[in-house]
Amino acid sequence: MTHYEFEPREKRGRNKLVGSWTETPATPVDLPLTVANLIQLLAIGGDAANATYTHQQIANWCERYYAQYYDDPSIQDETPDFDIANDVAAQWGLTLVNTYTLAELQSLDFTSVVLPLEWFANWLTRLRAADGRPPTAVELTEMVRISLWQDWDPIGINDCPEARDEYDSYVSGVCSLLQSGADSHMLGKHLAQIETKSMGLSSPSSHLDDVVLKLLAMVGR
Question: Which superkingdom (predicted)?
Fold first, then answer.
């Protein structure tokens, strides 16, 4: 699609066309347009270490997902998943026009554009809350994996992808606690012990309580 940019004329009347730019097409995401796949793509988008799909591909898929609301007569209500998919697509477009100049957009590598990762975490949280069903084991594993790497990260190494394996080794233990009904005290104690005994910190990280709340929210607690 070609986008046109205008600027006001000095005299009243029609605005002046100053240029146009076209978003180079991305390889489409070959996944059915389902809520489960929307959840999967939001999780991928929020994971800096997961390069399965670019944010451009995810936004384009979300645009197609939202189009179902208008194209499929059997869909009567705009449920939260449509609202969230529309928000993803809209924020992609707004980010482009609000971040780059016309000249930059005309030569931009759109595959390199990255939306704020916290937006994906927010979209995923909203979708989970609206969905009302507990995450599957696979979904929970991916959500915990992302949260430990991005939200927890007590030793500040999440800008070093080769260190990801250490954090991944803690995922199964956290998932087991969440699935067994552990409360905030038990979960916080578990992570604090990792920080002090495995990572060698002198005391638990200051943001540990916030991380625990985010983890519990993943399973509706």
Answer: Bacteria
